[in-house]
Design brief:
single chain; 584 residues; alpha+beta; ten-stranded antiparallel beta sheet; four-stranded antiparallel beta sheet; 21 strands; 27% helix; binds adenosine-5'-triphosphate; NAD/diacylglycerol_kinase_sf; CERK_C; ATP-NAD_kinase_N
Amino acid sequence: MFESLKSAINGPNAWSESREELKEKKQPVSKSPALTGNRVTEKRKRKKRKKKQQQAQESEKRSVPEPRPISPGETLSGHGRKEKSGNESKPIVRGIFQIGKKSHDVVLTSTRVTWTRIQPESPAGEASQTKPVEDFVELKDVFAVKVKRRRSAGQQSGGTLLGITLFFCKRKGAKLKDDTIHLDNLSVDHCEIWFKHLKEILNGFKHRPKSLKVFVNPISYKKDAYHIYKDRVAPLLKLADIQTDVTVTERKGHALSILKECSLDQYDGVVCVGGDGSVAEVVQGLLLRAQMDAERDRQSAFMPIPASLPLGVIPAGSANVVACSVNGVKHPVTAALHIILGHRQPVDMCSLSSMGVLLQFGFCVMVGFGGQALTVAERLNWIPPTQRHELALVTALAQLRPEDCELSFIPSSTGESDHTQSELEEDLSDVEDADWQVRRGLYLSLTITSIPCLCSVAPKGLAPFTRLNNNSMALTAVANTSRSEFIKHLKRYSSSNNPFSFSFVEVQRVQAVKLGPCSRHDDEQRDSKHTAIIPSEGTLTWNIDGELLEVQGEVLIRVHPKLLELFGTDVEEAEEPPVNCSCI
Ligand SMILES: Nc1ncnc2c1ncn2[C@@H]1O[C@H](COP(=O)(O)OP(=O)(O)OP(=O)(O)O)[C@@H](O)[C@H]1O
């Protein structure tokens, strides 16, 4: 294994040259200042060392064992500082490395690398009384280990071995950043042993992907998805030795057609670099492919089977609700590190079907204002996206009209984790016989979400009571009201006030929803003389994850628990600075 790395990074000759070089010089592993006093004779040094060893045995109080050059490959099981307990704290290998030009006693266990500064002795040979500071990095956060060499400008291979470098991820709030720790030691054998053990441990993280299919939408939002991928994500994937097969999409539907046909066996995950529309397309591809492979027909009450591969989302769109809901921030490096480290989060999804046929899978479905604003935005597609969204919002607010709808829903009876998948499937298969609650009326907005939909305009999410996988959807129904009251409700999404504490807003945790244009006769229509209603002609305009869909008649929306795995984590709130839309 080490041999292959040698050739991969430096070429075999370069590695053997270094080995010879080190042998000639009889390079010691690393020296603590205590062991290298320049006027001390070898004899005195040995005496000192012996004395130190005695002191160490006598003094239980010392928190760090005496630094000593250990022979390459020496395994110190149970030796040294007392650690917690169990195999996790058992040293696998131990040695002395320079970290930041200071000698450190470094210990590798199966879960972490710990280093402690070696305290120089006083001239009288007494050990320092100050407690050495211990630092560590958890191996679950380490995503790459590389051999470090000194190379001159332009030199592509070879170079003097300097030690090994660990690449790890550190957390600041929801944000993840990559960082490095350099363990400097000129001994090839010593580094080889450490490298081998570290690689073995990292290869043991089976949930981390080794091969990814990547889709990049070059026209997303500010058209910078390709650069985001190339400059900020690809270098990290390369460092982590992840193979990638990248498709820069050429048209709408390109990713979907590839996912329906290509062999997925060679991949451990799929990555989408783009906005929510691109994510929706890749999700359709993954889920349709899973149904096709399992030969499931897609009639109304069918129980979809989960996608075979997890999906990572690198945010490059405007709202990025899917990325924010599992990363907490709109930050490509955070998303990339969650993918590399294999953090996976099962998420609930909803399906939409009409007349007994599956239309689409989705995370967030809107009718009314959400559909109207998106219709305007699509018409204004000649305007740059940054201004288009605001203008569409203002126009939709100016033209705000309620939709006359018939809404039915089954309240969710399931707890977050107390039902098995088959029980949930059973519940969902009897939707026709279930106890539907029915509402008829004028609605300004209806939103159904299976995940919280966090974003910068709604840091706490669009849905109050849903989590990523609590086996239910959140239904928010905003009944007809004045424009000013509706704007107040919208503004509260980006403030600390509760957007749902209005008499005209109803929120339900639901398992299934039926929604269609109202079929009442004209003479039954309430307030029709006083309220301008969108003439539906039996059709509603749906906004499904940022994509428009016109559907005639009623649509059935059902929740499907844990239908997809996303790379990411469960987050409470988006850590994006709240954006107050200047237009409202
Ligand atoms: N090369 C392409 N040309 C045109 N459309 C494309 C291309 N590649 C993908 N698409 C489509 O572009 C649509 C919009 O993509 P995306 O959501 O990433 O961008 P956006 O709409 O600008 O972002 P947001 O949804 O965050 O506002 C998707 O439906 C996707 O299928």
